[in-house]
What does this fold into?
Amino acid sequence: MTAPTTVVLFGATGDLAKRKLLPGLLHLFQSNLLDDLRVVGTSLDDMTPDEFRDMAGQAIKEFSTRDLPEDEVKAFLQAVDYTPLSAGPEGLRDAVARSEAQLPGAQADMRRLHYLSVPPKAALPAVRTIQEAGLVDRSRIIMEKPFGTDYDSSVKLNRQLHEVFDEDQIFRIDHFLGKEAAQNILAFRFANGLFEPIWHRNYIDHIQIDVPETLGLSQRADFYESTGAYRDMVVTHLFQILAFTAMEPPTALEPRAISREKNKVFESMQPIQPQDVVRGQYIGYREEPGVQRDSETETFIALKCYIDNWRWAGVPFYLRTGKRLAEGARIISIAFREPPLSMFPRDSGVGENGPDHLTFDLADKARMSLSFYGKRPGPGFKLDKLSMQFAMQETDWAGSVLEAYERLIYDAARGDRTLFTSADGIERLWEISEPLLKNPPNPRPYDPGSWGPNQIHQLVAPFAWRLPFERKWREKRF
Ligand code: BG6
It folds into this structure.
């Protein structure tokens, strides 16, 4: 059971709201995961509540991935209200009061969940509006990244937020942690006797976290120009995934214990050195509308980093992400140390496709594979890389997967912070980013549709990038 909740959605007419948040709220409403839910949208657009409901209905039709019984969509839209920002804090206060009047139970038991789906410069003004509207009480706030742009700005942002909200009211969202497959890393690591003991520098050679994207800017030039791939993806998503992959077992599967272990990983991370980084910019980026002709913003980044603790000392972590690359993927690849291979003849094929690997695919259709060398059938002793694969899609649970934002809104509404990031953690990540941010290497040009600038191969040598895969994932044949 959750308390009756009003979600106040800032940026309610924006892209994220249309694609993910409104369809996600509908699902939480429809599936009774949030029992009594109302939504108050607000944004710079001057529209009436009816116009907003129409827009929300359209967005749901276009972007929801689920079956949509019409009566349930209608019931959801009846629980949606709107007030433009131009109506000021009073307008917002009135809309929330209208919403709470429709919810069951005593007002003192109701909750407000403010979701700030707004550009960075609009975040603090939205916080002020919430304060002036008297809506801080009984509330939690979900913030979208970036949480600052460097160490000083993140400390300042946190200080300003803490003037209005207590830290335990603030939910900094990183939607990668809401992905089912990301959480499964914890289950996989800590629930299996097979893998737990080898999760260690004695057995693991190196780790890759690789998130290439085929997408370009999709009309986000303004945001992207001041952000770039490192701030947009690495400081947020990739480092968070790294923490799940590398952290020590928490004392319990509960928020404080998990956060403590993640922050210890960040504490042990060595500062990111410019010589361990390849920045890239796709050819044609500077001609995109809204982009400066002499822009130095990186649309690609690959880097090597180290976690200097007893478990990981000396194990390189390679991270890569970028726009307009050859394929879209989100993988974590764990490469195991090779055993002595001298008994195998030179032409046996052993080691030819790199060491044996464990791969997590964080795609919406989550998958996992263990690749190992095995004997090719027939005479002689030739080896080939084989694999065991698991796809969540092939289980009976496929329909229960919550989309990342659904999961995270649900958790925030219940006050569960397990999958959210803390002020300390974020500040530490900016701290280790300082050498790179102060002295970024020049961005190298790369062709759209490639895997990034050539220098990425030197970065990862003597290993090789796991992507592109030498073989496709198996699709189940019925
Ligand atoms: C967002 C970034 O946080 O994550 C985008 O701002 C990126 O640039 C997106 O494309 C990727 O998320 P997903 O879940 O679509 O892989």
